[in-house]
């Protein structure tokens, strides 16, 4: 497989709107001995990408986020995950063949919004399962890892438990509804009415439109994906012994959850999701069990990156949005 000397790679000029995205021509990386070079065929545009590009992070998180990502603009090139094919193999890299379809995560170092990505062959990269499309592979890990980590590892959601998902049909919510159904939990989905059919298709037993006021009822687990409930909004919804999963939370609510996780017999759980390779493998196993498949609602061309960012920035996209290189 011939690899061009130059490739397209996205750069963010400054924190702000999608107009700050540029596609540069840069030298294609050569894989180090331990690495493989992936020709990226598709990558998702996630809520995370939008937050990194815009600098619009939950309240109080801006200082920490800029310290971690870069002061006036993100220092790393964007793109957290990818699907593609092996284009070159380092002299000591093992486990992959030229042309093999793969998917994985570039993580915080980014760079997946490009034509090529070099990654350690023993790193967070897997063969693409038979029957999974490139777009699905690209979208697979973002919502899936978050939903699996919070529902299974952190909340230990059990068969028969009642779950409320606030923000139920985006990347994280659509994975959460499927995984909850697989675990035998009874999920109620909060999203706009236009997405109620999708939520039911993904396993929700009941639906609620957030524009009709607060959800009602009692739940063992409340997963506040979009962060509009918070502790005050979730507390009346939690049954005795209930757990609140704060997927989106500002600095103070997050610190509060870390410092005082038990309140009134309830548990608050906040933080970031895992990127560990064994957890990625576990999510792949869930796919093979039929427990989770990403919902790719829209695929755009790489050149339409700014448009893709604008759509993702609405926080109303159903499932996942992917760009194809
Ligand atoms: N803690 C972590 O590690 C972690 C990991 C991943 C993501 N996140 C965060 O999770 C959030 C969601 O990510 P995502 O990728 O799932 O977003 P997304 O794909 O944009 O989906 C957003 C969802 O929220 C719903 N929604 C919008 N406004 C709402 C409101 N006022 N009340 C209730 N639901 C509302 C949307 O439904 P409609 O379209 O029907 O309005 C949609 O289902 C983001 O803030 C992201 O930063 C955190």
What does this structure look like?
The strands form three sheets. Strands 3, 4, 5, 6, 7, 15 and 16 form a seven-stranded mixed β-sheet that branches. Helices cover 28% and strands 28% of the residues. It has 325 residues and is of the alpha/beta class. Strand 9, helix 5 and strand 10 form a beta-alpha-beta unit. It has two domains: 6-128 and 295-324, Medium-chain alcohol dehydrogenases, catalytic domain (Quinone Oxidoreductase, Chain A, domain 1, Alpha-Beta Complex), CATH 3.90.180; 141-270, NAD(P)-binding Rossmann-like Domain (Rossmann fold, 3-Layer(aba) Sandwich), CATH 3.40.50. The chain has helices at 47-54, 62-69, 134-154, 171-183, 196-201, 230-234, 251-259, 277-288, 305-312, and strands at 6-12, 21-27, 35-44, 81-89, 101-105, 116-120, 125-127, 162-166, 186-190, 206-208, 219-224, 238-246, 262-263, 266-270, 296-301, 320-324. It contains nine helices and 16 strands. Bound molecules: NADP nicotinamide-adenine-dinucleotide phosphate (NAP). NADP nicotinamide-adenine-dinucleotide phosphate is lined by residues 46-48, 51, 143, 146, 166-173, 190-192, 195, 210, 225-226, 228, 247-248, 272-273, 315-317.
How many β-strand runs?
16
Q: Enumerate the spans where pLDDT stays under 50 for 5 or more consecutive residues.
A: none
CATH topology description of the largest domain: Quinone Oxidoreductase, Chain A, domain 1
SSE arrangement, N to C: EEEHHEEEEHEHEHEEHEHEEHEHE
Main sheet properties = 7 strands, mixed
Give the helix/strand class: alpha/beta
